[in-house]
Every structure is written in C-alpha cells, then in structure tokens.
Amino acid sequence: xxxxxxxxxxxxxxxxxxxxxxxxxxxxxxxxxxxxxxxxxxxxxxxxxxxxxxxxxxxxxxxxxxxxxxxxxxxxxxxxxxxxxxxxxxxxxxxxxxxxxxxxxxxxxxxxxxxxxxxxxxxxxxxxxxxxxxxxxxxxxxxxxxxxxxxxxxxxxxxxxxxxxxxxxxxxxxxxxxxxxxxxxxxxxxxxxxxxxxxxxxxxxxxxxxxxxxxxxxxxxxxxxxxxxxxxxxxxxxxxxxxxxxxxxxxxxxxxxxxxxxxxxxxxxxxxxxxxxxxxxxxxxxxxxxxxxxxxxxxxxxxxxxxxxxxxxxxxxxxxxxxxxxxxxxxxxxxxxxxxxxxxxxxxxxxxxxxxxxxxxxxxxxxxxxxxxxxxxxxxxxxxxxxxxxxxxxxxxxxxxxxxxxxxxxxxxxxxxxxxxxxxxxxxxxxxxxxxxxxxxxxxxxxxxxxxxxxxxxxxxxxxxxxxxxxxxxxxxxxxxxxxxxxxxxxxxxxxxxxxxx
Length: 502
Known about the structure:
By secondary structure, this protein is mainly alpha-helical. The chain has helices at residues 14-17, 25-55, 63-91, 93-112, 117-143, 151-175, 193-211, 219-224, 228-243, 254-257, 275-293, 299-314, 317-328, 337-340, 358-385, 387-405, 411-438, 445-465, 474-489, and strands at 180-184, 187-191.
C-alpha cells in the first residue's frame, strides 16, 4: 500500500506571507511608533550627560560622582540590558516595549527630583537598562513584520530619528546653560534647568508608553509561544487595517504557520506559573537562551558580532563626536570624563555657557550632523550593496582616517577627516544593528543582542576609566581596532533581501 505524502506547505517563510497583508495604515503606525521611540530614547540618553554638568552650577560635584553616574549607566546598559532583552524573548516584544518606556519615565523623573547624587546613580542604572531594552525590542518588533526587500531601509530610518532626538536634546540643553532664577510670591525660587531637562525627556516616554497599547504582539513571538491561532488573528488584523477590508477574507490557517519558527528546545514558560517559580523559570530560560547563542549553529555569528561591536561601542559616534569636537577646539582631553561629558573642560567646574565655548559647540554640532549623513547613506545602500560590504567599507575608512589624524596639524583638514570618521562609524553602527537582528532566530533574538552588547559595554567602562593612560595615541588605538574589526566583519553572513534566520 502506497503511503500518501502530506502536501508541501504553501509558504516556506513568514516573509512570503507578510506581503499579502499589504503595506498600509498599521505598518506605517508601527514605523511611526518605532521612530518616536528612537527620538525619545536619544533624548533620555543625552539628558543625563547634559543635566549632570549643569547641576554643577549649583552643587559641588566630585570626579568620583561623575564616574559613578556614568559607570552605573553603562552597567545598566550591559547587565540590565542583557536581562531585559532576554525577557523580551520570554514574555513578548509588546510587553517589554511598554515596560521599558515606563522605566525610562520613572528613572528620569527620579533623577530630576533627586535630593542627592546617590539617587541619581541608582536611577542611572535603571535608565541604562530601560534605554537598551527599548532600543533593542522596538527594532526587533519592527523587523519581525517588515518585508525582506525593505527591512534594512526601515530599520535604518529608526537610527536617523535617533540622531534627530540626539540633536534636538543637544540644542535644547545648550540653550538652557544657566539656571534661571524666578521670583514667585515674594519668595526667591530656583528653577534648576538640569532638572527640567531630565523631567522633560522622561515625560515623552510616558506618552509613548500609553500609545504602545495600540501595538499588536509580533506574530513570530506567538508562533514561538505555540499560539498559532493568535498569530493567525494578528495577521488577519494587519490585513484588515492595511487593506481596509474584512480580516476573514485573508486565507491562512494555523497549520500554515506551524513550522515558520523553531523553538530549539526552548519551550515557552506556562502562563499559569507565578511567584517565585516564575522568576526561576525566567532565569533558566535566560541561561538556556544564552547557552544557545554561544552554541552551534549560532556560536560563530555571536563571537563575530561580539568582536565587531567592541570598537563600535567603545568609540561610538557619540563618543567620537565629543572627542573630535574637543580636538578641533584645542581642548586637550586627559580623562575619560572629557569624552563622556561635552561640558567637562576643567576639573574645577563644568558650569559653562554657550557664549564661553562657541567654538566647541560649533564643532560639536557640525560633526553631529555627519551622523545623520552616514545613516542616510545607509538608507540607500543597505538593501542594495549588501550588509557585509556596507559594514566593512565604513569601518576601514574610519579606521584609516583615525590613524592618519595624529599626523595632520591643519585644523581644516582635521575637520574634513573627522567628518568622514563620524560618517563611517555612524554607517557601520546602523548596519550592525540590522545584522544583529537578522542573524538570530526569534527564540533568542533579544538574548543575542544582549550578549553581543554585554562585553563591549563592560570593556567601554575600563577603557574610558583609564583613558588618561594613552590619551596621546588614542586615535591610533581606535583606528587600529576599527580596521581589525573590519577584517573580522568579512565573516558576517549577508542576508540582504533574504528571510531572517529562524
């Protein structure tokens, strides 16, 4: 008797099915939410490093406190970000987007109304965790529904809006350099501008947290959680909203989606588990997810991306923006604090105004605009030239110019070289964030991002803390690290216009 074979599935990948839902109102709303999250994320990120220098106009702040705030922030990004990114694989993208936005709101307001710097140091840890989780989860949530032909373009758009938020917060902070004194009911009151900066940046995140309730959970997460019927329902809702028609006319069945997402033995935690058992279960799943990301077949991708990410985090476009602006303004940086805080000019005080440092701020904003230039370049080439090429070339260009920077004394030539350095690093960082999402399956997509970011951020703490040990040849070190990382980047898989790894 001949055994009847089951018919092949109508779709091999979820990317084959998603275009049928159309590109309409809901997907545009998701993109708008992702861009708004990026703006708020950047504003909250920069608010801390503009607010602390301004607070020295009223209070005496030691270098130890300045280091404490930044180290706490980076530890939050590495340890807290890793933990919360793991939880996004366990509890879903939508839930963690809301929680991360609420975390940003609570921590910025806590810092704004703090009565001592130790509260700010604690708030900085949770702020770093919330920012890292929000940035990662929002991009993953968006990438999991994007068409494969435009995935790189739309993810790069989020980075452009991040830089818009970075510039807006910088302009706002510069215009509020001095604390304002007001008189109200015959009582002198001091409106501390640094508190206003923190509170304002956090207030927008609360609005977005409310708007995030309108988002649908990722269909890929539903498939990982073995809830095929909810994935079908989500796709039908996408179809109905995008095409302004009845969702029931979208023909898809539960069994059509069953094999899109592999669980790799990481079964989701039952919803009825609560209390201490829930914490234990989440911890075990985090450990197993981390082990999977460091095991075959993902070990090579994880290690490669970890090595490539180190120079992109240590010498990020934000750090280089401050460092190069001070180089062009003849401000000699002798401490890592000079890279972290734009207003850190002397060890006595950071309370400065725009009028006192017009050259420094002018160079800073000129170089900052180049970050957007690099990201716009990626908008056009990321889905055309491919991921690997768009990662290697910018890193090589930036590395070469950084090495050559020590041998150039003319300030105009240095400005041109610095612009190319910023453009290259910004382009490579945008490309890297796309690759880091594409090369891992749904079950560990957030976890892998946390793993690759963890070691790079920890290393950043040590390098910046001991920056004064090699201040004279830091550009040589940065350039060498970028060139070596570009060689490692040649091993990265290129998924241009291809389905993401599942």
